[in-house]
Design brief:
The protein is 74% helix and 4% strand. By secondary structure, the chain is mainly alpha-helical. It has 2 domains: 1-48; 51-101. α3 crosses α5 (84-97). The longest helix has 23 residues, at 2-24. Residues 26-48 have a biased composition (Basic and acidic residues).
């Protein structure tokens, strides 16, 4: 009886580990694209683009550090958890989507 329970528990554990492996092994680019699509869908409501808090913070951060030739990589990582390249891409996306004033 205990052997059957142990075998069942081990097989369930193995199945759960396989499921984790497929989600953990997701390609970073695919994951980032999925997050970007989700963010875009959340921001677009009734044909209007909402400016989210993160976008405002990114623009303010870029303005603040722009006077000094840009922020150091460690400051970008501490503030937003992304590389300088990804930060620049995200800033371009925000500025590209911004409505003309």
């Amino acid at each position: 009886m205990d052997e059957k329970r142990t075998a069942r528990a081990l097989s369930e554990h193995a199945a759960s580990q396989r499921d984790l492996a497929t989600t953990d092994g997701m390609d970073n680019r695919a994951f980032r694209q999925r997050c970007d699509r989700r963010r875009e869908a959340d921001q677009t409501r009734n044909g209007r683009i909402r400016v989210d808090k993160e976008a405002e913070e990114i623009v303010q951060f870029a303005r603040r550090w722009g006077l000094f030739g840009g922020a150091p990589a460690h400051e970008i990582f501490i503030q937003f958890g992304m590389s300088p390249t990804r930060f620049a891409q995200r800033l371009q996306e925000i500025l590209h989507r911004a409505p003309d004033r």
